[in-house]
Structure formats: C-alpha cells, structure tokens
Amino acid sequence: MPEPFLTPVMMDTIERYFVALQGHAPAEVMREEILTADFRTGFVDGHVWQGSDGLREFIEARSEFFDESHEVQQIDEPVALPDGRWSVRTRLWFFLRRRQPGAAVSEEFTGLAFHRWEFQPGEQRYEWRVAAQMVEGFARLNANASRLFGHPEDGLDT
Prior knowledge:
alpha+beta, 7-stranded mixed sheet
C-alpha cells in the first residue's frame, strides 16, 4: 500500500504541470522545472510525442489555445512501477478556447479526459516530475473536442 503522502504529491505535480502548460512555458523551461528528460505524452494506442523534439511539437500543436483549464475530478490509487517511478490514473474536466485567424468568434472545447500518468520521485520529498501523461480515453466531448481528438493516431486535429 502506498504511503499516504503520494496522492497529494501527485496532485501537486499535476497542477504544476498544467500551470506550465497553460502558461505556454517553453519546452526547455518545462523540462527544467517539471518534466523528466524522457517525458512522453499522447494517446494510448495513438500518436505519442516523446523527447525534446516531441515536447516542442506538442507545445506547438496546442499553442493556439489562449484560454484553458483542467480540473482533476478523480485520482486512483498510486501504483509503484518496477523502475522506481509511480503511476496513477485520473479523470479530469477540460476547457480549451481558441480563435482562428479571421474567425468572428472563438471556439470552445470541453469534455472529460482519462489519463495515465507516470511520475519520477524527486530529490526533495514533494518535488516530483512528470514522466508521462497518456490519454486513455474521453467522455462527454462537445462537437469541437470530438473533432480535435477524433483521430488519436494523428495527434491533435487542429
């Protein structure tokens, strides 16, 4: 059974990750502050962005979103991995907004996302890093989000 401090540490790490992501932090800053060198993100059984180039491509693919929020609604029991990392699954509500050049109004993207996260314990007890954020599925997507995430093998359909 995991130690009781793990879930709050993981929640804090997820929140720090989203602060950097939503703040459009450059890839170098994200790697320095919150991510492992081998960070990967993407879709289970779909497109995956990995490594330095992958992180830059991921950040570029989502750079058009100027207003967004992510709210973790559920976090499962942490699981120890053989390599010393930890894994956890979450369900979160997301809201993204973008405005395409020349568009009269902005577009909103909403829904639930189910993620599997991997964390690398930090040197300090409460300073962990994100090693992976993989989307396992979606629910309650609005039409815009259904289009955006409709082809996980291709990444984001921007």
